[in-house]
Design goal:
401 residues; 14 helices; mainly alpha; 4 domains; single chain; 74% helix
């Protein structure tokens, strides 16, 4: 007896229990009218749900918490189907997709509702965890001084080790290592100098950097509106080679559009938080474009398979993206405690295994063709994601508050 037959058998037992519970509710007469008819359409009730209109036979005279629970269940379907869907979605690649497409659907959440829940969960977790993600000076002055002391001690230890080993090769290795340690120490000294710097001087330098960037953007987008002050800044930048911005393709754009981009770019430079907020606003919307694009790629890769329809590929894409969002959410939480290296490796490995198993179970491909299609889809989807990222950056710039 294989795993699928056991799964179906277990489901039959569950359905029998559900039917028995429904029969008991119907016998108790909960939610019926005086004549035992549906209060919505008048049809004779045979259970908790009306067979004619589908209304639940319930009078809703219950505590407010029960009504809120029903509202959440109706929105996200957070009942037993949630765990029956999420667990195999994460741990058994392709299983629920194959079951859903072959008609086993009642036990699972609807694919689009699952996708909506997974994407909302991911972006909520990302927003909560991104507040401290861009800290450029995570170390204190004392910690940096300790790092410098550790580098000096490492250099002394290496000198002693090279003296014990002797030989020309040891001297060459020692010199190369010493240069690397010296570069690291200089970098730490620079950071220490920045922390010790007068706040007024540092603020003045940051303001000068913003002015140079704004003038460079104006030179690239609207040279007609450059002005004498910015022209002098651009000339100085040209001599130093800093902030060289090339925006090919926008020279022939309407002047009004280029002025809009320049004005919004200046806002993004002066207020980066507004730009990040615009990116967070548009990122979830862009996600709803990705899953149909992925479904289109699957359709093009299986266009000769007549028994497969676009609907099938859309379900595969919805389940795959739901898996990605939920898995990324879990890894984001884990990475907060152990660092990003292991979660990144886990994501790259398991997402590709998932895609490979999906081709094996859902589409019935062989091992070689499944591996080949996984590689091809990885490449194509990477290109799509790069264009999507560029589109997101452009949308954030155009619609910045």
């Amino acid at each position: 007896m294989d795993a699928d037959s056991i799964d179906v058998g277990a489901t039959g037992a569950e359905d029998a229990l559900v039917a028995d519970a429904a029969a008991q509710e119907a016998t108790a007469g909960g939610g019926r009218g005086r004549s035992g008819d549906c209060r919505n359409c008048g049809a004779d009730l045979q259970g908790r749900h009306c067979y004619a209109c589908g209304q639940v036979a319930d009078d809703y005279h219950r505590p407010i918490w029960a009504l809120l629970a029903d509202a959440l269940e109706g929105l996200f379907s957070l009942d037993g189907r949630f765990w029956k869907t999420v667990t195999p979605l994460l741990l058994r690649p392709g299983r629920i997709t194959r079951n859903y497409l072959t008609g086993i659907r009642a036990r699972y959440m609807q694919p689009f509702r699952l996708f909506l829940l997974a994407s909302v969960t991911f972006f909520l977790a990302f927003s909560l965890s991104s507040a401290d993600r861009f800290d450029l000076n995570p170390m204190s002055i004392d910690e940096r001084q300790e790092a410098v002391a550790a580098l000096e001690q490492a250099e002394r230890d290496l000198t002693a080790a090279a003296g014990d080993a002797g030989g020309e090769e040891a001297e060459i290795a020692l010199e190369a290592t010493r240069q690397g340690l010296e570069a690291a120490r200089e970098a730490l000294d620079e950071n220490l100098a920045e922390l010790d710097e007068d706040p007024v001087v540092r603020a003045s330098r940051e303001e000068e950097d913003k002015t140079q960037m704004i003038c460079a953007v104006r030179q690239a987008l609207v040279p007609e509106d450059l002005g004498d002050a910015c022209r002098r800044v651009v000339e100085e930048l040209g001599e130093s080679g800093d902030f060289d911005i090339q925006l090919g393709g926008l020279d022939d754009a309407p002047l009004g559009f280029r002025r809009l981009l320049a004005r919004n770019a200046e806002t993004a430079i002066d207020r980066p938080d507004l730009y990040v907020s615009a990116l967070k606003t548009w990122a979830p919307r862009l996600v709803f474009v990705l899953f149909p694009v992925y479904a289109l790629l699957l359709t093009l890769m299986h266009f000769w398979r007549r028994r497969l329809y676009v609907y099938d590929h859309v379900i595969v894409s919805l389940h795959f993206h739901s898996f990605l969002f939920l898995f990324l959410t879990i890894l984001m939480v884990i990475g907060h405690f152990i660092g990003p290296a292991i979660p990144i490796f886990a994501f790259l490995a398991w997402s590709n295994i998932y895609l490979y198993r999906m081709h094996r179970l859902v589409y019935g491909h062989g091992r070689f063709t499944s591996a080949l299609r996984t590689i091809v889809l990885d490449f194509l989807y990477f290109v799509v994601l790069m264009f999507s990222l560029l589109g997101l950056l452009a949308l954030g710039l155009i619609f910045i508050a």
